[in-house]
């Protein structure tokens, strides 16, 4: 299937490792010029080298702490300078934030800044040009919402899902799509500490119909499809990639 992504531009947050890294590689392999953002310079530079070695479009890399108050403005400026108009925004930066039942305000606040406020602010940076050009795709990597323990990342991402639904309603008339990608458990540094040794296989054989955690490429493949015109009728919804882990049927 030709995804017709050649010549497009994309901004990917959380691109230094895990899913964002795989998403950057897959988009670049399809001919998309990516602004890849993270904090770890070494990982970002190795990502750029890997993409080029694989024959993809060389990404522009940016080391930027997403928690900084001016992060959205700085990323938007780097995108304009390095890419020109942005066709695809992948809001992926984040991490699991397990908290006690009585969580500290500072931890809750930090999670909402990282997973909701900055994501919204960054998206808003790109919307005026997307509206003017009457095209654009925003893809938010969200989270599982069936936890039985407290996780401030998942709660903040629930806010993203609701906001994305509203945004999709507003932006459809401009040809802009807004889609959430809900991962199950994907093998990354983010979650490895929680499933050490036998724990991963024990959990997976009990809770995941397909029997194991997903790979970052499983997410990257779906994001790349969603970013393409092949997904032109998908907006205002959440696409789940979890090996069947979610219990809810709807
Ligand atoms: N893996 C899973 O099973 C799973 C499940 C549900 C949801 N998710 C969500 O999926 C997304 C990707 O997670 P992942 O598993 O791929 O995690 P990961 O491998 O730990 O990668 C996280 C990425 O986010 C970036 N990041 C985190 N905090 C940042 C900050 N303050 N400023 C700038 N960049 C920051 C990291 O950059 P640096 O390392 O360079 O700092 C890294 O590139 C996250 O939003 C996560 O919540 C993952």
Automatic annotation (TrEMBL):
InterPro entries: NAD(P)-bd_dom_sf, SDR, SDR_fam. Belongs to the short-chain dehydrogenases/reductases (SDR) family. This is 3-oxoacyl-[acyl-carrier protein] reductase.
């Amino acid at each position: 299937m030709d995804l017709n992504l050649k010549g497009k531009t994309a901004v990917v947050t959380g691109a230094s490792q895990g899913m964002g890294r795989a998403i950057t590689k897959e988009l670049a392999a399809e001919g998309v010029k990516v602004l890849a953002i993270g904090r770890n310079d070494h990982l970002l530079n190795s990502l750029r080298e890997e993409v080029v070695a694989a024959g993809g479009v060389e990404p522009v890399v940016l080391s930027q702490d997403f928690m900084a108050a001016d992060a959205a403005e700085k990323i938007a400026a780097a995108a304009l300078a390095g890419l020109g108009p942005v066709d695809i925004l992948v809001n992926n930066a984040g991490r699991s934030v397990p908290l006690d039942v009585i969580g500290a305000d500072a931890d809750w606040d930090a999670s909402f800044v990282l997973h909701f406020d900055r994501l919204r602010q960054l998206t808003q940076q790109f919307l005026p040009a997307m509206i003017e050009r009457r095209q654009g795709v925003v893809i938010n990597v969200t989270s599982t919402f069936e936890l039985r323990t407290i996780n401030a990342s998942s709660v903040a991402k629930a806010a993203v899902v609701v906001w994305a639904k509203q945004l999709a309603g507003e932006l459809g008339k401009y040809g802009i799509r807004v889609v959430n990608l809900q991962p199950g458990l994907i093998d990354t540094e983010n979650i490895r500490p929680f499933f050490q040794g036998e724990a991963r296989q024990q959990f997976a054989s009990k809770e995941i119909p397909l029997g194991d955690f997903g790979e970052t490429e499983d997410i990257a493949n779906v994001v790349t499809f969603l970013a393409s015109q092949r997904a032109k009728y998908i907006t205002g919804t959440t696409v789940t990639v979890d090996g069947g882990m979610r219990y809810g049927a709807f």
